[in-house]
Amino acid sequence: MTNAVTNIVVELMPHFEGYVYPNEATPQPLWSILIVLYPYITGLVAGAFIMASLVRVFRVKALEPVYRLSMLTAFAFLLCAPLPLLFHLGHPERCLEVMMTPHLTSPMAIFGFVYAWYLMAVLLLELWFDYRRDLVAWAEQTSGFKGMLYRLFTVGVTDVSEPALKLDAKIGQFLSVVGIPSAFLLHGYVGFIFGSVKANPWWGNVLMPIIFIMSAMVSGIALCVFNYMVLSWIRRRSIDMKCLDVMGMFLFYALVMDAAIEGLDWIHRVYSAEEGFKIMEYMAKEKLFYTLNLGQALMGTLVPLLLLGSLQIRALRQRAPEWLRRRLYFIGSVLILIGVLAMRWNVVIGGQFFSKSLRGVMSYKMEFAGLEGWFMGGLMLALPFIILTVLIKLFLSEKLPSAGHYEPASLKP
Amino acid sequence: MPKMPPQVVRLVLLTIGIVGSYLIARYFLTPASFNEYGHYRGAALMEIASHPVVFAGKKSCEDCHFDEFERLGRFEHKTLSCEGCHGAGQAHTENPDIRLAILNFSHCARCHEANPSRPSWHKQIDLRDHYAGEACTECHVAHAPSQVPESPEAP
């Protein structure tokens, strides 16, 4: 009898403290690791694209060596962005229904439009116009399956005359300009989904879309630094230090902005101390102590700020040998990538850790296997890198000479 | 009129192709009754309504178990549905040989195990401290909670 009773107690009452409504006392939050990865991956896309547009729109010449890598990174991650949602919903076979019966007034369904616009009208088109000259050349040089792919990607257009390339560059430039607000829209939308939940003081915040955009830029640039360094290491190529220094600079300033806005958000919360503040304080001090204070604030923000910031001081940068700078950039970018993942965790899981009564908290222990487990999360994070490897083999191949990023004289500054 | 550049022509054709095939797919794949009443399949209502009935409702219990029904109506549990504790009963109404479970423990804990989110007027106990015996019905009558059972087996 006692055993039976104990079992029932455990079954009835999952891990929680204080006042928790019965419908909140579920064994795990409704949105778990897959929903953590969704804004993470989407943010990496937006950030990597903004990084690429620094070359295209803002003419940062030093970043030319990473332009295509950033675009391909954005593309590989964008292809995986809706997957966590699809798996989380649990009926992948119904994925077409969102296309067949689009809903125009549901904020959640609007992701379909935002995603389609960004993928089809911005990223794919910009990639195509940028690669057109190379695709035509590669289609002639290669045979077999690869050659067939290149021929397919040219869509039958083989005109690479000077006026045609000029037009490509102009359209590419235009798409890049359109792409920046689109990238902001893509990730601002994700922030809006959380920020518009009025009933949840952890989420309901007008700064949320901006915080998401800023952290997306930081994580995207960090991912480009990481990818560039890893790719150079795999290919045993020397790293263009000027490019890396400039990436490090943009990463640092983006991080400063991000930290400032997130800091502002916290100052606002602490000073206004609204009704949900007590529970938030408890969350920061207890439930999310490791992921918020250590993961997000210390390892993900303060340490990278120090590492990257020290290299912004000219005297230090000039004195630091190349190997040291490379290491600092690498460590900084990896820490930022982990820190932003911790930030997504804190937002998504943190918002479900406390009761709507604001007087009780829930707990959640992630399983290993299963749909929302560690294994699935790792797989979901590995997939974009696998796709990126294929894309790099196809479009950044060392065996095929590339004419590179075409820029006609009239567009040069 | 200036000639349209070939890459633009191809893109326009491609776009028309993609949008066209989407519209065709939409024409064939959108369920016929979609949007009949709202943003869902109208036919879904009939499909759901045609599912076999599982719950019989309190009224059908009264037809045969009149005494118990009348007793329940005089005590604290009068607002509860019979099937809330005994489980779905449609099969039992059609064939009385299909018995419903006689409950003596777990269904009580569902509502009376202490939980801070329950109102304080609601009677609650900590199961581990309250009684280590076999069944709640040894001391309580589910159909008449304020009475003491004449025999332990009485419901």
Number of domains of chain A: 1
Assembly context of the chains: heterodimer
Largest interface: A-B, 33 and 29 residues
Counting DSSP E segments of at least 2 residues, the number of strands of chain A comes to 2
Radius of gyration of chain B (Å): 30 Å
Structural class of chain A: mainly alpha
Residue stretches of chain A low in confidence (pLDDT < 50, at least 5 long) are 1-13
Helix content of chain A: 55-70%
How would you sum up the major sheet of chain B? none
Q: Helical proportion of chain B?
A: 40-55%
Number of self-contained structural domains of chain B: 2
Mean pLDDT rating of chain A: 90
**What is the rounded distance between the termini of chain B?**
93 Å
Q: Helix tally of chain B? A: 8
Distance N to C terminus of chain A? 83 Å
Give a short summary of the structure:
The complex is a heterodimer of chains A (413) and B (155). Chain A is an all-alpha fold. Chain A has helices at 2-12, 33-56, 64-80, 83-89, 97-100, 110-141, 144-154, 162-195, 208-234, 241-272, 277-287, 289-310, 314-319, 322-348, 374-395; strands at residues 16-18, 360-362.
